[in-house]
C-alpha cells in the first residue's frame, strides 16, 4: 500500500467549508457549545494579520483531515510570548497516520520562529488516546485548571 502524501500548511481563507466539519468534530468530542457568532469571529481572526491566532491544517492526499489552532500571548514570567495550542483535532479517517504529532511539531516550529519560550495546552484527564501522544512530545506540568465562566 502506498503511503499517503501528508502536508502541513496554513488553512486558506477560502477553505472554511473544509475546516468547519473538523471544528465541529472537535466541539462535539468535548461536548462544547459556543456563543452565537463565535465560530465566525474565530475564522475571521485566523485570517487577520493583526491577530495572534493561527490555524494549520494536515492534508492527506490533498484533503484537509486535521487542524491545530494556536495563539501567542504574553507572560509575566518571560519577556517573550508563550504559545497556547488551543485546539487539535484529527478526523477519525486519518487517525494513526501521525497527523497529531505533525501538527504539534508544526506549532513548535512556529512558536520557536516567533521567539516564544514555551508551548502549552490543556486536555481532559480522560482523553487517554491523545495523552499517549502528549506524553511523548511534552511534559505534563501537573497543574490543574480552574475557571469561572461568564
* Estimated share of beta-strand residues: 15-25%
Note the run of SSEs as H and E.
EHHEEEHEH
For the secondary structure, the number of strands is 5
Biggest pleated sheet: 5 strands, mixed
Helix/strand/pairing category:
alpha+beta
Shape from CA axes? Answer: globular
Mean pLDDT: 94
Question: What is the alpha-carbon Rg in Å?
Answer: 16 Å
Distance separating the two termini: 51 Å
Explain how this protein is built.
This protein is 32% helix and 23% strand. The model has no long low-confidence stretch (mean pLDDT 94). Strands 1-2-3-4-5 form a 5-stranded mixed sheet, sandwiched between helices. A hairpin with a 2-residue loop joins strand 2 (53-60) and strand 3 (63-73). The chain is an alpha+beta fold and 150 residues long. It is built from 4 helices and 5 strands. It has helices at residues 16-29, 38-46, 99-113, 128-137; strands at 6-10, 53-60, 63-73, 82-90, 119-120. The chain has one domain (6-137): Aminopeptidase (3-Layer(aba) Sandwich), CATH 3.40.630.30.
List keywords for this structure.
23% strand, 5 strands, single chain, 4 helices, 32% helix, alpha+beta, 150 residues
Summarize the structure.
This protein has helices at 16-29, 38-46, 99-113, 128-137, and strands at 6-10, 53-60, 63-73, 82-90, 119-120. By secondary structure, it is α+β, with helices and mostly antiparallel strands.
List the helices and strands and how they pair.
Layout (H helix, E strand, L loop, with lengths): L5 E5 L5 H14 L8 H9 L6 E8 L2 E11 L8 E9 L8 H15 L5 E2 L7 H10 L13
Parallel strand pairs: 4-5
Antiparallel strand pairs: 1-2, 2-3, 3-4
Amino acid at each position: 500500500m502506498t503511503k499517503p502524501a501528508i502536508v502541513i500548511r496554513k488553512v486558506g481563507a477560502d477553505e472554511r467549508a473544509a475546516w468547519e466539519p473538523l471544528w465541529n468534530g472537535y466541539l462535539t468530542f468535548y461536548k462544547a457549545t459556543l456563543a452565537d457568532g463565535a465560530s465566525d469571529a474565530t475564522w475571521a481572526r485566523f485570517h487577520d494579520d493583526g491577530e495572534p491566532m493561527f490555524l494549520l491544517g494536515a492534508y492527506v492526499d490533498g484533503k484537509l483531515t486535521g487542524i491545530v489552532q494556536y495563539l501567542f500571548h504574553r507572560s509575566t514570567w518571560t519577556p517573550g510570548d508563550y504559545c497556547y495550542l488551543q485546539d487539535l483535532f484529527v478526523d477519525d479517517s486519518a487517525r494513526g497516520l501521525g497527523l497529531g504529532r505533525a501538527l504539534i511539531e508544526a506549532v513548535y516550529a512556529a512558536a520557536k520562529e516567533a521567539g516564544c519560550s514555551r508551548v502549552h495546552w490543556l486536555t481532559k484527564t480522560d482523553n487517554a488516546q491523545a495523552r499517549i501522544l502528549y506524553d511523548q512530545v511534552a511534559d505534563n506540568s501537573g497543574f490543574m485548571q480552574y475557571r469561572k465562566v461568564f
